[in-house]
Amino acid sequence: MDEATTTPGGAAAARATNDRREIFGWTMYDWANSVFSTTVAGVLLGPYVTALAQGAVGENGPVWRVGSATLITAKSLWPYTVSLSVFLQVFLLPFLGAVADYTALKKRLMIVFTYIAVVAVCLLFFVVSGTYLLGSLLFIIANLSFGGAIVMYNAYLPEITTEDQRDKVSSRGFALGYLGGGILLAANLALVLSKPFGLSSGMAVRLSLLSAGIWWGGFAALTFARLRTRRAPRPLPSGERLLTIGFREVGGTFRELRRLPYTLRYLIGYLLYNDGIQTVIGLSAVFLTQELFLARGRTEAEGQSFVIIVFLLVQFVAFFGALGFGRLAGIIGTKRAILVSLVLWTGVVVYAYGFLQTTTQALAMAAVIALVLGGSQALSRSLFSRMIPAGRESSFFGLYEISERGTSWIGPLIFGYVVGTTGSYRDAILSLVVLFLLGLVILALTDTDRAIHESGNSTPEEAAAGAGMVTVQG
Q1: For the chain, which end, N or C, has fewer CB atoms within 10 Å of the first or last residue's CB respectively?
Q2: pLDDT, position 70
């Protein structure tokens, strides 16, 4: 079976792509790992670590000083934690992608990084008062490993689908991710709000974090049972070792990007606007808790409960939004559908800064975010997968993942600097508008069809018109 999936031509080649069983297994990884983006990174851990730090040093007291200078405050600890976790990915992920392109280890590496992250998430259960820095460290490990697994996961997309199916399959993966993340978030909402058996708020949060690790590790096993191990796209050159070829290929990938100027331009635009998206997702829990609750004399527990309701709304509405934008892309084109979503993202940031005052308004804003969230991410992934040369999927997705899901580093760095300097979360959220506008302009000026052709691939229309495509029913 494994050999058949790498043999060009005929029914064997058809089994390499559009196999419903393998596609289902692939999409289930979104179902499995999205609980990290929601329960852990999106909703609970940021406010929890921030509250522990504020309890130790004051509302915006110093967490790390060098001499008389305060480098990290209680308010900026979480944004800087997020930023560092993704900054480290800049060095690791392209190297991992290059190694995967020369080996048959893609699936094994995906398994290893998944379960490193799962263990780190489960250990968050032991983060209590006085150990908030441990919480930051465990998140850095988990998010770094999350990125390593996602590089391998995304690199499977062009291997298991043809160009005309990628928008649909990518959108389906994100949709299942929102549904899975929403189901566990609903359970955590019930736990945090009801606190059964006399549980404290802190214990309810810690149990919720533990549940995310167990969910992720358990459902990921289904993915690993369905994904095939494929041969290496390229043989390792004589006399080379994986360590040396990995570092060399990172440079080779950047050189090849220079020969693909439209792919490079798209990647720059994506890095900018997706940084904005990920920062809104990753730091909105802290923003809402601080601005709508603590700043108005309400309790942290009230803020946490409301944030979970907001994220739960987003998860279930985003399920339909992801599928809807997949259909929109089929009508107006993938690039235009992404541009529509970026216009709406820009409006969300401006609204949060100048108009957001009540929880009702926050719920309405969350509904808009939900409609565009999955579409902007799923379509960006599938569009990029058409712009990269065959055999170099992991290397290019290593670069892509630097600014992919699970948080990015430019936006949190900007956000952390602004809030640390001004003490205003509203000023910090407004500062993100530049990322959306720059990304929108760059994408609008990028000839994506030319990028697809220069990388040796076909547009969805050309692929659909091709003769002899076989779809396996599974």
Answers
A1: N
A2: 83
Asked if residue 176 lies in contact with residue 28, where contact means CB atoms within 8 angstroms, the answer is yes
Residue 144 to residues 29, 86, 138, 151, 158, Cα–Cα distance (Å): 17, 7, 10, 11, 23
pLDDT tens-digit readout, 241-269: 666 666 677 777 788 888 999 999 999 99
**pLDDT tens for each residue of 346-356:** 999 999 999 99
Q: How many CA atoms lie within 13 A of 456 on its CB side?
A: 9
**Mean pLDDT, all residues of the chain:** 86
Three-state DSSP class for 321? helix
Please name each of the domains of the chain with its CATH number. Answer: 13-235+254-456 (1.20.1250.20)
Query: Using the 8-state DSSP alphabet, how is residue 54 labeled?
Result: H
- The helix or strand, by DSSP H or E, that contains position 451, with its residue range, turns out to be helix 448-454
DSSP letter at 233 equals: S
Phi, psi dihedrals of residue 69, rounded to the nearest 5°: -90, 130
441 vs 157: CA distance, rounded Å:
27
Alpha-carbon 367 to chain mean position = 19
Q: Residue for token digits 């290019």?
A: 396
Cα-based distances in Å from 421 to 4, 67, 71, 414, 427 = 59, 18, 11, 11, 10
In sequence order, the 6+-apart residues with CB closer than 8 A to the CB of 361 are 355
Q: Which two tokens stand for residue 89?
A: 């990915």
Residue 99: CA atoms inside 13 Å, Cβ hemisphere, count? Answer: 20
Cβ-contact 201, 195 below 8 angstroms: yes
